[in-house]
Amino acid sequence: RIPTEQWAQVVEKTGGPVVYKKIPVQKPGPDEVLINIKYSGVCHTDLHAVNGDWPLATKLPLVGGHEGAGVVVARGELVKDVEIGDYGGVKWINGSCLNCSFCQQSDEPLCAQALLSGYTVDGTFQQYCIAKAAHMARIPKDCDLEAIAPVLCAGITVYKGLKESGVRPGQTVAIVGAGGGLGSLACQYAKAMGLDIIAIDGGAEKKEMTAKLGAGHYVDFQTSKNLVSDVKAATSDGLGPHAVILVAVNEKPFQQAAEYVRPRGTVVAIGLPAGAYLRAPVFESVIKMITIKGSYVGNRRDSAEAIEFFRRGLIKAPYKSCGLSELNKVYELMHEGKIAGRYVVDTSK
Ligand code: 8ID
Ligand code: ZN
């Protein structure tokens, strides 16, 4: 029943394009599962991988993708807690050693041996994908596989980032890049957490979308004459948001957030624009007692919690659908910043 060949999108050389072609189906190792990927979200990370613009090399040739939702079709002999037919998700952290000091303390993303789906191991832009069983996301049977796909990276990552910010119900969060993939999910998680949301992005389409997703305020970075004062003015007392979630793919906001975050507030860097630096004025950072930190995907528990928010119906983020064969088109739109929300590819087309 499992075919020997399958359709995949393959990065043959850094810089792209991706090539739609048939490749062999792999067999799972003893601690692995084989998942028939039905849908995969397309994350900006996948485009960074094609372009090779991060200081970390990808495998080549590479099958990208790390927001894959599907059905378990085979398992290795050591896998006891996953059944054939279960719904499974492939996330960015494909596997980790489970034994280093980070893994022992549930910081699996920090494991030096971590396998990265669609980067250091083949990912979800294929019909059959391997995952370490310990890290496979458990997807309940009542979840829609297409709608849940973006939760497997974007959702987990922003859910974790919001927790890392320490923001509490009733407080205000600024989401920078709110109209993109991570940003649209961040609006929904922030709304579910009872936060007041300032969405920051560009253009009318993203303004309208973020308002529907729960943002009470919108600051347009393309037209604002003074972004720092506009963001502060969006808070009731004019002192700025308690937390800033940076999910833009652009250096500028990483050098602005410290100026509008509230005293005692936290700036969380999540987006990974190539070659960029964080910057903050020392004087203001000190006398405002601000915190600036990074946040990187989530551990297995964060993943299960982010999925549970979705299962409970709290997360309804918009996505556009197309076939896996059309991935190059999605990358072009993403490069131009023209995607409001997420694209999800159907691996059968
Ligand atoms: O674990 C992590 N830290 C993690 C996990 C997943 C993804 C990090 N990422 C990284 C990706 O690699 C990428 O660098 O987060 C970044 C955002 O990924 P995405 O949400 O998949 O990208 P997108 O859909 O293209 O959205 C980016 C948004 O930023 C806006 C764009 O308009 C778009 O809506 N934006 C830009 I570009 N410049 C902006 C600016 N100056 C801006 N919004 C506000 N101000
Ligand atoms: Zn991602």
Automatic annotation (TrEMBL):
<keyword id="KW-0862">Zinc</keyword>
<keyword id="KW-0479">Metal-binding</keyword>
<dbReference type="InterPro" id="IPR020843">
    <property type="entry name" value="ER"/>
</dbReference>
<dbReference type="InterPro" id="IPR002328">
    <property type="entry name" value="ADH_Zn_CS"/>
</dbReference>
<keyword id="KW-0560">Oxidoreductase</keyword>
<dbReference type="GO" id="GO:0005737">
    <property type="term" value="C:cytoplasm"/>
</dbReference>
<dbReference type="InterPro" id="IPR013154">
    <property type="entry name" value="ADH-like_N"/>
</dbReference>
<dbReference type="Pfam" id="PF08240">
    <property type="entry name" value="ADH_N"/>
</dbReference>
<protein>
    <recommendedName>
        <fullName>alcohol dehydrogenase</fullName>
        <ecNumber>1.1.1.1</ecNumber>
    </recommendedName>
</protein>
<dbReference type="Pfam" id="PF00107">
    <property type="entry name" value="ADH_zinc_N"/>
</dbReference>
<dbReference type="GO" id="GO:0008270">
    <property type="term" value="F:zinc ion binding"/>
</dbReference>
<dbReference type="GO" id="GO:0004022">
    <property type="term" value="F:alcohol dehydrogenase (NAD+) activity"/>
</dbReference>
<feature type="domain" description="Enoyl reductase (ER)">
    <location>
        <begin position="15"/>
        <end position="345"/>
    </location>
</feature>
<comment type="similarity">
    <text>Belongs to the zinc-containing alcohol dehydrogenase family.</text>
</comment>
<dbReference type="InterPro" id="IPR036291">
    <property type="entry name" value="NAD(P)-bd_dom_sf"/>
</dbReference>
<dbReference type="InterPro" id="IPR013149">
    <property type="entry name" value="ADH-like_C"/>
</dbReference>
<keyword id="KW-0520">NAD</keyword>
<dbReference type="InterPro" id="IPR011032">
    <property type="entry name" value="GroES-like_sf"/>
</dbReference>
